[in-house]
User: Fold this.
Amino acid sequence: MLRKVHPFLEEGGVVCASIPNINHVSIIEELLRGNFTYTKMGLMDQTHMRFFTVNEIHKMFVENGFEFEAFQYIPLVQGNQVQLLERLKAVGSEFGIDTTTLVERGSAYQYVMRARKI
Assistant:
């Protein structure tokens, strides 16, 4: 979509987007249970064609000629999900994985952004 809309925007034109986070703790929790089940709504909405992490969102916008004017996330954690993220952070660190932003990334339910054509 970004590639298709880019030629129609004037220089400095903007795109606003809300993108669900496949790296959310609820998805991780379900994967640990062996599930990757589509649902009628939410992060695993059956109409979603592709899934993104924050790193892939940034990469996709930059590669398609955009820079962010605003970028934020909407957090959502429930029940024991904070504890799960903290434990995953510790395990990841033991394996040499940089987990400094894991709690933030895992808490982000969706990312909301405004990006300008460059």
Summary: The CA atoms of residues 75 and 107 lie 5 Å apart. The beta strands are 14-20, 66-75, 108-117.
